[in-house]
Automatic annotation (TrEMBL), chains A, B:
Pfam families: HxlR
Keyword Transmembrane helix carried by entry: no
Descriptive protein name: HxlR family transcriptional regulator
Naturally occurring in which organism (per UniProt): Chryseobacterium soli
Residues in HTH hxlR-type domain copies: 10-113
Keyword tags: DNA-binding, Transcription, Transcription regulation
InterPro entries named in the record: HTH_HxlR, WH-like_DNA-bd_sf, WH_DNA-bd_sf
């Protein structure tokens, strides 16, 4: 067996990454944020962007993102009442992370799926 | 209600991001990859880096990462037999994504937790 360098991983890096992972976990949160990168939207418009998310799940995930201050929900006192979702500055700060996710997703697809 | 630009999210972006998300999903895969960024390691060394992962879960997640060609597993015919894990080139290609995850995790912590 070759002699290899074995350094312990930086606990600071591990913690920060786990914080981020906790926020973006699951199948729907990142797609929701990507959808709202394209502008303020109503519930049905987000659902249309994502395609295969159930209303119940979308509603739950929007709530979680709102609690974490990634998106904001605005209620308009119109007839009928209108609700719109948009990214907060914290939500917009995810843009570079999403770009890297996209880059790596493409790379992975090319390497593994081969197209 | 103001008139706002409402563009549909790019389906290509959504698909690539979902590919990437599927690979890194869960609490442990990213920490495992971070641990192995610091060098080839044995099971116990990875477990020590991460801290609170159970052996059963770690074993399951290492297997999933191996199936997706993110890590490789090498068996040494020593006494006792030794198993080592390391990142493949595809695993190493996650470095920029992990950096952004770390950056955003720090930013999020400062904004929300306030420290």
């Amino acid at each position: 067996m070759k002699n290899k360098t074995k350094n312990e991983a930086c606990p600071f890096r591990l913690r920060a990454s786990r914080d981020a992972l906790e926020i973006i976990q699951g199948k729907w949160r990142i797609p929701i944020v990507i959808s709202l990168m394209y502008g303020t939207k109503r519930f049905g418009e987000i659902q249309r962007d994502i395609g295969d998310v159930s209303p119940k799940m979308l509603s739950q995930e929007l709530k979680a993102l709102e609690e974490n201050k990634i998106i904001s929900r605005t209620l308009y006192d119109s007839m009928p009442v209108t609700v719109e979702y948009s990214l907060t500055p914290l939500g917009h700060s995810m843009e570079k992370l999403l770009d890297e996710l996209l880059n790596w997703g493409n790379h992975f697809r090319k390497e593994i799926v081969g197209k």
